[in-house]
Design brief:
The chain is of the alpha+beta class and about 400 residues long. Helix content is about 45%, strand content about 20%.
Length: about 400
């Protein structure tokens, strides 16, 4: 038989606050508390619908709120806010997950150290079990387990800094209130600022390393030029594939080519070199959004802004290069080859529509292997030339052969 530990009149009152407290529960590591966070403690995660088990045995602490703070594991009765249990995280050895099964909820097993001799009064004085289980009836156990494990790993309760003001208040709990909430928010903001600073330090190192890779690619390119006769064709192809995977070896930047028109002209030249072959593979046309993604991927850390890309594309006409900028009536901007034939596109699109009797932009995109945007522009251009006509209904926009011109009505 287990004897309930009641030391003082206050402990008796505290014990009677929970009407459903089990007389023979064995969770002797738990202590009563008022539910307030102490100085330097902050809430990490909480979950409703949590039941406490003492080993394999159910307790009457059912359907409560489970909480993990930086210092404690807590359980609170939602119907009686005065019924709160707390367990120091320093008593937790390790955790285990117990997955849900047929008519069984998922559980977290918390293995515990023996109860200390100077422990505050709790529901019981001793227990024959060395672990407790938390049952989650409303799910949420995955996030709870992750946060719980992190707190046990980092042991933040050991690194709490005690100020002279805190020493005066040691031994008693401090109510949270407005000041406590503001203090917790300030602590979280400081932690966030610290994490951001560390992240930017890592980003700076990454940028420096990327520049080293660009310099390395330049050196490899120079060696290929200097030792062209000493390097076999297979080795040359392999070196070039490495350079291609690194991106543009010498991207045009404002630092290297200045600002204004000169910068945009140099950038336009590089766009011609980079995009001529991919545009040929795509049928002679590519949207500016796809260009933006391809170019920035090739440039690595030296990213282009959308405004710089548009300004550079507007200089393509002046260069008289193999690529030009085109703006459709709908406002869609594309890059297309100078050799791109509008008549050939209209003829091909008309044939496709006649063969399929009718098509939508999505269907044409699948047939010719283009994006839906470009497929729609092809259909609109062909319609403008009078080769096809549209049917616009609640089902969407569909195009048909123009029987009025072909006399096949």
């Amino acid at each position: 038989m287990y004897i309930i530990s009641i030391y003082t009149h206050n402990h008796i009152l505290n014990y009677l606050l929970c009407e459903n407290t089990p007389i023979f529960s064995r969770m002797d590591r738990f202590s009563w508390c008022d539910g307030n966070l102490v100085q330097g403690e902050s809430l990490v995660v909480q979950q409703h619908g949590v039941r406490l088990y003492d080993g394999e045995e159910k307790s009457h602490f059912d359907n409560g709120i489970g909480m993990v703070t930086t210092h404690r594991l807590m359980w609170k009765d939602p119907k009686d806010q005065r019924c709160v249990l707390a367990l120091p995280l320093s008593l937790c050895i390790y955790l285990e997950e117990q997955p849900s099964g047929f008519a069984k909820s998922a559980k977290i097993i918390v293995h515990l150290q023996p109860s200390p001799a100077d422990k505050s009064a709790g529901p019981v004085s001793q227990s024959s079990h060395s672990y407790i289980r938390l049952s989650f009836r409303e799910a949420g156990q995955i996030e709870f387990f992750r946060c719980f494990s992190e707190e046990l790993k980092f042991r933040r309760w050991e690194h709490a800094v005690t100020t002279p003001e805190q020493k005066k208040t040691q031994g008693r709990q401090i109510r949270t209130g407005i000041m406590g909430i503001e203090r917790n928010i300030e602590m979280k903001n400081k932690a966030t600022d610290r994490d951001i600073s560390v992240a930017f330090e890592d980003l700076s190192k990454l940028i420096a390393k990327a520049r080293e890779m660009v310099n390395l690619s330049k050196n490899i390119a120079e060696r290929i030029k200097q030792k062209k006769g000493d390097i076999s064709d297979d080795e040359t192809v392999k070196f070039k594939s490495y350079l291609l995977s690194m991106g543009i070896p010498d991207p045009v930047t404002r630092e290297t080519h200045g600002t204004g028109t000169r910068y945009y002209l140099e950038l336009a030249k590089q766009l011609c070199t980079l995009l001529e072959e991919p545009i040929k593979d795509l049928g002679g046309m590519i949207t500016l959004t796809d260009v933006y993604c391809r170019v920035n991927r090739a440039r690595g850390m030296e990213l282009l802004s959308p405004e710089d890309l548009v300004n550079a594309c507007q200089q393509l006409e002046q260069l008289k290069g193999p690529i030009r900028l085109r703006v459709f009536d709908s406002g869609v901007m594309v890059l297309q080859l100078q050799t791109h034939s509008e008549e050939e596109v209209i003829k091909t699109t008309t044939t496709c529509v006649e063969q399929n009797q009718s098509v939508t932009a999505e269907e044409l995109a699948q047939v010719i292997g283009l994006s839906v945007i470009l497929a729609k522009e092809r259909l609109l251009c062909t319609e403008k030339a009078g080769k096809i006509c549209r049917d616009e209904s609640v089902e969407g926009l569909r195009f048909y052969p123009n029987r009025f011109l072909s006399n096949k009505i």
